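Morning run. Coffee first, then this:
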Amino acid sequence: MFELLPLSTAETVSVDIDGNDSQVPAHFTVAEALLAGGNTTCRTSQVSGEPRGPFCMMGVCFECLVEIDGVPNQQACMTAVRPGMRVRSMRGKARLA
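And here it is:
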């Protein structure tokens, strides 16, 4: 559904996604980094446990919530990557910050 366009001059940053080091273009959002790495699930539904992932890519639907640097419930599509960032998928009910 999504296609990564080639950007040969793009600067990259190192981001830890669920324990895996990923090199992603510095202009990406967290949602773009997840999708580029083949990860389509950001969290699971707190009611049914069904996988949820980036949907609208513009901050409206809240399906892309992840934990970033220990802070839960962050919108992946609205957060730019930065060097050393730690991103974790959320499973089930999220705790309040």
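The two ends are 33 Å apart (CA to CA). Good start to the day.
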